[in-house]
Structure to design on (379 residues):
């Protein structure tokens, strides 16, 4: 069948339209795909850019972390080194501390330093050691506190302080500021009182140190003095014999022998405590009997000057005096004479020497200081 021209044109136009439609559809589909691909490409580019940025950031973070790790490792190394040095320092410090609290050694050292500085140690008080601990390392130590009072020249006190500060045993110690006291010179009234006190103290010491034999000798001298006999003259035994002769004449041999024997035994047995009583009783009873018999005039013949003292003491009542009154007078007189003999044992030179030392000490500057010493206690 043969197509006409017009039919052919129509078919051609239809084909062209179909082709155009297909091409348009294909173009649109391709264009949409291109846009989608372009969008996806852009998204991928953005994602890649973000990934690259993250990579860069992560690389920076990794580098920073690596640097931080290196820094921390360095710090750890330094801390380990410091810890090791601290351990060595602790051991060194511990080695410098005394092994334990040495109160006796400290006391002896302080007293020795005071002596070497020509000071007088007035007071040294060591407080009970206390414990302390340093940090978490468990470093335990003792704290010893010593309070010291010394007296001497100011220059010697300063020398003592310097010796304490520089002495090795106190290398872990501290010294508080020194309290210095410079007293005023003593008045004469105070010195006189000091002299009297010193004499009384020396007399008391002399009295306490007397042996029984020495005390009897002193009583014998007191009796001789009572009878106004020279100290180099007749002994008490000889005087007793003299008294015995008088009593024998006046009262009979039996009484005289008995009384003389009591005195002799007291002297022989060193009964110092009984000797004065025995002598006073013998003389007192004899004189009392003379008074009772109206022969008081014989008192002076019997005891000489002391007989006059007894008569004067009794006064107008001499004719009625009791033996006890006479015994009391003689006892007190003998005791006073014995005390005088003991006081004579203390010389003025000994008193002056003690007084000079006491005045020097009293007028000497004094200082008080506190030494605190730290010693290692250990585990």
């Amino acid at each position: 069948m043969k197509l006409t021209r017009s039919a052919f044109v129509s078919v051609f136009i239809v084909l062209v339209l179909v082709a155009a439609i297909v091409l348009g559809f294909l173009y649109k589909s391709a264009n949409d795909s291109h846009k989608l691909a372009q969008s996806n490409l852009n998204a991928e580019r953005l994602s890649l850019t973000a990934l690259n940025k993250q990579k860069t950031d992560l690389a920076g973070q990794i580098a920073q972390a690596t640097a931080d790790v290196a820094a921390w490792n360095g710090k750890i190394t330094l801390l380990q080194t410091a810890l090791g040095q601290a351990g060595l320092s602790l051991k060194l410090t511990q080695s410098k501390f005394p092994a334990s609290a040495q109160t006796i050694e400290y006391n002896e050292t302080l007293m020795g330093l005071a002596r070497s500085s020509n000071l007088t140690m007035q007071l040294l008080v060591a407080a009970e050691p206390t414990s302390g601990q340093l940090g978490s390392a468990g470093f335990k130590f003792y704290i010893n506190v010593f309070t010291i009072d010394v007296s001497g020249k100011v220059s010697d006190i300063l020398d003592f302080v310097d010796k304490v500060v520089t002495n090795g045993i106190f290398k872990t110690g501290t010294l508080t500021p020194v309290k210095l006291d410079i007293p005023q010179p003593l008045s004469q009234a105070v010195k006189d009182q000091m002299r009297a006190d010193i004499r009384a103290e020396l007399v008391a010491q002399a009295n306490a140190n007397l042996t029984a034999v020495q005390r009897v000798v002193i009583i014998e001298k007191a009796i001789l003095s009572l009878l106004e006999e020279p100290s180099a003259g007749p002994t008490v035994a000889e005087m007793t014999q003299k008294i015995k002769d008088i009593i024998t004449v006046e009262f009979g041999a039996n009484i005289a022998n008995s009384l003389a024997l009591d005195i002799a035994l007291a002297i022989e047995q060193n009964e110092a405590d009984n000797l004065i009583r025995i002598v006073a009783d013998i003389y007192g009873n004899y004189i009392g009997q003379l008074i009772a018999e109206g022969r008081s005039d014989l008192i002076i013949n019997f005891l000489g000057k002391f007989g006059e003292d007894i008569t004067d003491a009794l006064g107008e009542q001499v004719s009625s005096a009791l033996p006890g009154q006479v015994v009391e007078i003689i006892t007190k007189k003998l005791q006073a004479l014995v005390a005088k003999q003991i006081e004579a044992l203390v010389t003025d030179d000994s008193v002056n020497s003690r007084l000079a030392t006491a005045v020097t000490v009293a007028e000497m500057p004094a200082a008080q200081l506190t030494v605190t010493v730290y010693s290692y206690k250990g585990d």
Observations:
- The mean pLDDT is 75.
- The CA atoms of residues 35 and 41 lie 9 Å apart.
